[in-house]
């Protein structure tokens, strides 16, 4: 099982920027996610090349913040929405990656 890509997409940095300076643009956050997913593909291909019979489980990421309750006074409601939306985008991109790789016989 792997959870991979969140650090490459710099989620920790994005949360910090949202709190300290305002959230980065959605386009730049999605570009970082797209790059992280491409890097994840490379890692999965390398694992498959070295262990072609292995079953690889790519685990997704949960929402970063509750949609119903404020869990922090540091992150505003609008910032939580932005960050959750970007996390959902990341989840969907990783799901697409997993499906495309399974179509290529990567289990």
Mean pLDDT level: 86
Radius of gyration: 15 Å
Oligomeric state of the chains in view: single chain
> Main β-sheet: number of strands, strand sense, barrel status?
none
Q: Can you give the helix content as a percent range? A: 55-70%
Question: How much strand?
Answer: under 5%
Shape: elongated
- What is the succession of H and E elements? HHH
- As for the number of domains, it is 1
Q: Report the span from N to C terminus.
A: 12 Å
Any low-confidence stretches, pLDDT <50, length ≥5? none
- Computed structural class: mainly alpha
Protein name: SGNH hydrolase-type esterase domain-containing protein
Organism: Streptomyces djakartensis
List keywords for this structure.
elongated, SGNH hydrolase-type esterase domain-containing protein, 58% helix, 107 residues, mainly alpha, SGNH_hydro_sf
What is the topology?
Layout (H helix, E strand, L loop, with lengths): L10 H10 L5 H25 L26 H27 L4
Helix pairs in contact: 2-3
What does this structure look like?
With 107 residues, this protein is mainly α. It has one domain. The chain is 58% helix and 0% strand. Helix 2 (26-50) packs parallel to helix 3. The radius of gyration is 15 Å and the shape is elongated. The termini are close together. InterPro entries: SGNH_hydro_sf (IPR036514). This is SGNH hydrolase-type esterase domain-containing protein.
